[in-house]
Description:
Layout: H1 3-23, H2 28-40, H3 42-83, H4 89-99
Helix pairs in contact: 1-3, 3-4
Amino acid sequence: MAIYYSLTFFLLAAEMVSFVLLLMPMPLAARKRFFRFLTESYIVGKIAYALKISFIFIAILFVDAVQRMLRVTAEAEAAKNANSGVNHVSTEVNIAARKF
């Protein structure tokens, strides 16, 4: 698995775990201590900084994927128009694989 897929999966899993932890019912005193720790901790600040950089990296990869898909779609339309209605299965499979 490529490193950006692993990074995206890890961030998604970490988000799910953190949302579950935040939504768990806790006593008020424990909840206050937990949120105070999150706002004042040096380590949490460093993790937040690393997450911001990771989100920027993933956003750049997303934009690249969208541009690639648009380019493949434009090439497929040009190929369809050039062949004037004659479709080959291997060509369609190749285009679908490139879009994926």
